[in-house]
Amino acid sequence: MLELNLLPPEQKKELEFEKTYNFGISIVVIIFFLTGVVLAATFGIQLILETNNQVLNEEQIKSTKERVETEEYKTLTDNIENANKKIDFISELGKNQRSTYKLISEINRLLPSYISVTSITFDWKERTVSMSGKAKTREQFLLFKESLENSQKLKDIKSPLSNLEKEKDLTFQIEATIKEKDE
Asked: What is the three-class DSSP state of 8?
């Protein structure tokens, strides 16, 4: 059977662009959904740890009344301190999740359709973000890098020279520092 494609090249390009655009939107929606799931899980874990901490505090009071300065009291105190550290860690994680969502939104806003980001890694202790991805041309990559440099949430954009070796179909890696709120 013979098939003929009678669409003009312009309409073919429009259809191809529309497919790519719809795929990109789907990826963004998935990222937002997964971020929501991670936030919900974080808050659930935090609630469980807070409940456990309350139970441990009640046990500590009972133990203090029964045995002052015993080995069991010391062990229980250590457990409570560990639980408090875990709660603080989860609380900090929750704060970072909100910041991560805002930062992903900013990167997504700056991300042109011709750039594909394949990996993003956040280090909140060092306040850095690392990205890797693909660009069709060197010029497109440089435009994306420039938009990151002009970002209100990122600074000190670092791009190795290896990002510029190829003129077409290049893979890239970028590291940046996350700005403080008052910068």
From this structure: coil
Q: Rounded to an integer, what distance in angstroms lies between the CA atom of residue 6 and that of residue 73?
A: 83
In the three-class reduction of DSSP (H, G, I as helix; E, B as strand; rest coil), residue 168 is classed as strand
| Mean pLDDT, rounded, for 109-118 | 87
Phi, psi of 128 (to 5 degrees): -125, 160
Q: What is the pLDDT of residue 139?
A: 92
Instruction: For residue range 58-81, list pLDDT tens digits in order.
Output: 887 777 666 666 777 778 888 888
List CB contacts of 68: < 8 A, sequence separation 6 or more: none
The CA distances from residue 180 to 26, 97, 105, 127, 135, in Å, are 31, 16, 17, 9, 29
The class level of CATH for 114-183 reads: alpha beta
Give the start-to-end residue ranges of the domains of the chain: 11-110, 114-183
Q: Where are the alpha helices (DSSP H) in the chain?
A: 9-66, 71-110, 138-149
What is the Cα–Cα distance from 117 to 142, expressed in whole angstroms? 14
pLDDT (tens digit, 9 = 90+) per residue, 16-71? 899 999 999 999 999 999 999 999 999 989 989 888 888 888 887 777 666 666 77
Count of positions (residues) in the chain? 183
